[in-house]
Amino acid sequence: MLEALTLTTESAALTKHALPTVWNSAEWVAYFRHNATNLMPVPWGCGAGVSPEELAEIAGSLRAWQLGETSDGTRLTRAASRYAVRMNDPGFVDAIRLFIAEEQRHGAELGKYLDLVGVPRKGRDWGDAVFRCFRHVLHQMEVWATVVVMVESHAMLYYAALRRATGSAVLRRICHQILRDEVPHLRFQCERLAVLHRGRARVLWVLTMGAHRVLFAGVTLAVWAGHRRALRAGGFTFGRFWRSAWAQMGKAWRAMDPRAYRWPAPTATS
Ligand SMILES: [Fe+2]
Ligand SMILES: [Fe+2]
């Protein structure tokens, strides 16, 4: 009995020790700077490499997604600046600026591809308008990060589908790079949410998670409505997309749970 108890205590200590810590802003800045200089080359010399049939399936969706990736980030930087002051973490603004720069690179590469295949870029899109409207109304860092996590979870599915839907070496490489970038993006947002959710009363946290489920269901339906043609071309039926989206977001929900991290012990104040 005593042996079992000792083993349980030891494994609990081991599990606690094995938990990751949340990266600080300096670590995220270092990551984003490193990533910016370690990009996979896009084989632009190969040309568009897309058939008219392929393009017909993905062009409309690609235009809308390209617009969504293109934001000057002014409002996010403003929200991050207010948050950084509150948290006494000025480095967070630098991390957010580098994050925005990566998203702008995604938009620029997709835009360059649209130009290459002669498809005009989009200036307006209902999905993008709803997304921006939502973020403009609510200026809190938590809302930003929550909405971004949901969109990025869908982006993981979308770019994987787009990659499957085309034989274009250029577009496939762009998608590959975006997918590679989005994994740390999700972690970046989830860690921030874990920081923000930390210390929240259990009942409020359960309510927050409930609200997330409702919002996520809406975002998933909206993404399917706006992009089903490209998603289908990439092998998704609605059922498969729905299940994959919830599985992807499930990982994010686990990663934004404060209990998933080891936190520094509180420092004693005099
Ligand atoms: Fe992106
Ligand atoms: Fe992203």
TrEMBL record:
<protein>
    <submittedName>
        <fullName>Ferritin-like domain-containing protein</fullName>
    </submittedName>
</protein>
<dbReference type="InterPro" id="IPR012348">
    <property type="entry name" value="RNR-like"/>
</dbReference>
<keyword id="KW-1133">Transmembrane helix</keyword>
<keyword id="KW-0812">Transmembrane</keyword>
<feature type="transmembrane region" description="Helical">
    <location>
        <begin position="203"/>
        <end position="224"/>
    </location>
</feature>
<keyword id="KW-0472">Membrane</keyword>
<dbReference type="InterPro" id="IPR009078">
    <property type="entry name" value="Ferritin-like_SF"/>
</dbReference>
